[in-house]
Write a structure and sequence with these properties.
Layout: E1 11-21, E2 31-37, E3 60-62, H1 63-70, E4 77-81, H2 91-99, E5 103-108, E6 120-123, H3 133-138, E7 141-146, H4 151-161, E8 167-172, H5 177-190, E9 195-196, H6 200-203
Helix pairs in contact: 1-2
Bound molecules: S-adenosylmethionine (SAM), the ligand Nc1nc2[nH]cc(C(=O)O)c2c(=O)[nH]1, iron/sulfur cluster and magnesium ion.
Cofactor: [4Fe-4S] cluster; S-adenosyl-L-methionine; Mg(2+)
InterPro entries: 7-CO-7-deazaguanine_synth-like (IPR024924), Aldolase_TIM (IPR013785), rSAM (IPR007197), rSAM_sf (IPR058240)
Function: Catalyzes the complex heterocyclic radical-mediated conversion of 6-carboxy-5,6,7,8-tetrahydropterin (CPH4) to 7-carboxy-7-deazaguanine (CDG), a step common to the biosynthetic pathways of all 7-deazapurine-containing compounds.
Length: 207
């Protein structure tokens, strides 16, 4: 797998792009255009988009073309995801999105340095490659995937590193959602600073 990707930030490997509703977290339910970049060096065993990991398997697109596709739809939230989008320098993509009137949101594990101008940072920290401090501090929402009981302690560890006002979400790992969701509900009842994030798009079968 190529981990030294994106030397030219005017072109980026894109696995897929789609206009849908944000299925998770604070913006859940709002129209959003998703740009899924290729490349990830974190390697979560339960990742729901393993096809994204190898950047070389995905065609490179000019940021102007990525943005002109996005601008065909009326929504003005662009969610940059992956893969791990911070493996790429996002300066050119986020400025082109801003010029076209988009808010720039990112879904990240925080394992690579921040780049670009980002209006909303969703940090989902992973044990397999922990986030950098700068991303813990900058995050607007923390969204921790709960795969087993030990992940509640992982969630609290990252809540303690977050800035004041950061929204706190617990999200069941999809394959274990039946088992973990009741534990998350009980946890939130005892720790009301947390909220539940479900992957709503998977329940209603939209991308
Ligand atoms: C596929 S990741 C891509 C962005 C970035 N690499 C990250 O992990 O945040 C997008 C979001 O989906 C979550 N996710 C991935 N696989 C999941 C699963 N099996 N169940 C629940 N959430 C999952 C991630 O934690 C992250 O919040
Ligand atoms: N609808 C929808 N909402 C999402 N929120 C985060 C996603 C992601 O894969 O980053 C995602 C996704 O794949 N689809
Ligand atoms: S960091 Fe994100 S894209 Fe990478 S393996 Fe984990 S969930 Fe998948
Ligand atoms: Mg997803």
């Amino acid at each position: 797998m190529d981990t030294s990707i994106a030397t030219n930030n005017r072109t980026l490997p894109v696995m897929e792009y789609f206009y849908t509703i944000q299925g998770e977290g604070f913006y859940q339910g709002q129209a959003a255009y998703f740009i899924r970049l290729g490349g990830c060096d974190v390697g979560c065993h339960w990742c729901d988009v393993k096809e994204s990991w190898d950047a070389d398997k995905h065609p490179k697109y000019d940021v102007a073309d990525i943005v002109s596709q996005a601008a065909q739809f009326p929504g003005r939230i662009a969610v940059i995801t992956g893969g791990e989008p911070l493996m790429h320098n996002l300066d050119a993509l986020t400025s082109a999105l801003h010029e076209a009137g988009f808010r720039t949101h990112i879904e990240t594990s925080g394992s690579s340095p921040l780049s670009g101008s980002l209006d909303w940072i969703t940090l989902s920290p992973k044990k397999f490659k922990a986030p950098l401090e700068e991303v813990n501090r900058a995050a607007h929402e923390l969204k921790v995937v709960i795969f087993n009981k030990s992940d509640f302690a992982w969630a609290e560890k990252h809540a303690a590193l977050a800035s004041p006002g950061c929204k706190l979400y617990l999200q069941p790992e999809w394959s274990k959602a039946k088992e973990m969701t009741p534990l998350i509900v009980d946890y939130i009842k005892d720790h009301p600073q947390w909220q539940l994030s479900l992957q709503v798009h998977k329940y209603i079968n939209v991308p």
